[in-house]
Amino acid sequence: MAVRQDSAMARLSGLLLCGALLGFACLDPGVGVEVKVPAEPLSTPVGKTAELTCSYSTSVGDSFALEWSFVPPGKPLSASHPILYFTNGHLYPTGSQAKRASLLQNPPTGGVATLKLTDVHPSDTGTYLCQVNNPPDFYTNGLGLINLTVLVPPSSPLCSKSGQTSVGGSAALKCSSSQGAPRPVYNWVRLGSSPTPSLGSMVQDEVSGQLILTNLSLTYSGTYRCVATNQMGSASCELTLSVTDPSKGRVAGALIGVLLGVLLLSVAAFCLIRFQKDRRKRPKETYGGSDIREDAIAPGISEQTSVRPDSSKGLLQRPPSSSSVTTTKSKLPMVV
């Protein structure tokens, strides 16, 4: 009884002090609204059901209202959008999560306002607000915040490489998964029994999934595997790195050039020898084009034509050829 009296006296003293300071009578605000939610973040595997625990204490009256809302990651609380709300004895689901959202107790008038969200998606990750309003209990905000993370195993990562993959150069091996929550960590390993490159020439970033290889040598050639891991599982990809030696390429090019030169010389020598053999096989002519025979017959003169001397003129006279002289007999009568 003494405790109750002391409490009542303290309450009355507070009201009198409030009135003295403000100049008017202060009303007793009644029982305050108190909302309780877990202090630790909540995580649920993708596809499972999440229960967001929320409880409250107040004197539930006709003006009691409960609202659950959602804030995407990186957004302010003012950007929240409602999931469901309860007022005037009725429950109203709303928004894109309406078909998957419900209350653990309906109606939520017994002090429990826990939200159930079935078949959670990666897009359900964010902050959830449990807010209770019960006028005239206004002097507390009646608000609780719960952070939910939907756990997603890493998707198959994509492996790629860049840089100068020749002896003495540097290369970067990259690995990245498009999905995974929490964010995966990446680890590169080399497959096979080949000698492992020295640690000083390998720099690995587990967060970005990048492996830097410097001062490359032929021993770096081989198959590398990247493993992406989080608490939900792991996935991997592989790629093959081939380190080339430019000096060997130059030697091979010079050797090919020499072989081609020898081949061309051999073909030219063969053609020359063949030409000489063909020339020796041709028949030799007795007389050249400029030689003149004394007994040769001029063109167009028959071999039967003979040359006789003309004693009267001292010249050689050739009788007319029968083939070139034609005797024409006149058809007119001779006159004696």
Write the layout of secondary structure elements.
Blueprint: H1 2-22, E1 34-36, E2 42-45, E3 50-52, E4 55-57, E5 65-71, E6 81-87, E7 90-93, E8 101-103, E9 115-117, E10 126-133, E11 143-151, E12 158-163, E13 171-176, E14 185-190, E15 202-205, E16 210-213, E17 222-230, E18 233-241, H2 246-280, E19 308-310, E20 315-317
Parallel strand pairs: 2-11
Antiparallel strand pairs: 1-4, 3-9, 5-6, 5-10, 6-7, 8-9, 10-11, 12-13, 13-16, 14-17, 15-16, 17-18, 19-20
Q: Which key phrases capture this entry?
A:
2 helices; 17% helix; disordered N terminus; single chain; disordered C terminus; four-stranded antiparallel sheet; 336 residues; alpha+beta; rod-shaped; six-stranded mixed sheet; 20 strands
Can you tell me about this structure?
- Keywords: Disulfide bond, Glycoprotein, Immunoglobulin domain, Membrane, Repeat, Signal, Transmembrane, Transmembrane helix.
- It holds the Pfam family Ig_3.
- By secondary structure, the chain is α+β, with helices and mostly antiparallel strands.
- It is 17% helix and 31% strand.
- It is built from two helices and 20 strands.
- It has helices spanning 2-22, 246-280; strands spanning 34-36, 42-45, 50-52, 55-57, 65-71, 81-87, 90-93, 101-103, 115-117, 126-133, 143-151, 158-163, 171-176, 185-190, 202-205, 210-213, 222-230, 233-241, 308-310, 315-317.
- The strands form six sheets. Strands 2-11-10-5-6-7 form a six-stranded mixed sheet, with no helix packed on it. A four-stranded antiparallel sheet has the order 12-13-16-15, with no helix packed on it. A three-stranded antiparallel sheet has the order 3-9-8, with no helix packed on it.
- The chain is rod-shaped, with a radius of gyration of 57 Å.
- Residues 1-29, 286-290 and 301-336 have low confidence and may be disordered.
